[in-house]
Amino acid sequence: MQEKKGNEIVRLDLRHIRSSVSDYFVICHADSTTQVNALAKSVEEEVFKALNQEPWRKEGLEHGEWILLDFVDVVVHIFKTDKRKFYGIEDLWGDAELEYYQSA
């Protein structure tokens, strides 16, 4: 995500939240649908190279405004900037531990 210039990359640790659907969420955003799609493609490629694992489920590829890549234990959310602000996913999981990463 950093190499493809994903903005405001954050990891939410959900392991201690009883109702969580995954262990971790990784979230970032980009200013265009082209960049959102490029980020999603890069994440898929890098995870496959490192772990030989493909997403269990993918959503949002047709619109490129919010792409979700579900690797079961880790769910990656890649938003277009305005959609990230609108949905405020970090706020929905306010009890999660957050770790921020510098953008490239």
From TrEMBL:
Keyword Repressor (UniProt): yes
Pfam families: RsfS (PF02410)
Compartment(s) of residence: Cytoplasm
Keywords linked to the UniProt accession: Cytoplasm, Repressor, Translation regulation
InterPro entries according to UniProt: Iojap/RsfS/C7orf30, NT_sf
Function as written in the Swiss-Prot or TrEMBL entry: Functions as a ribosomal silencing factor. Interacts with ribosomal protein uL14 (rplN), blocking formation of intersubunit bridge B8. Prevents association of the 30S and 50S ribosomal subunits and the formation of functional ribosomes, thus repressing translation.
Family under the similarity heading: Belongs to the Iojap/RsfS family.
Subunit structure: Interacts with ribosomal protein uL14 (rplN).
Protein name: Ribosomal silencing factor RsfS
Source organism of the structure: Parapedobacter defluvii
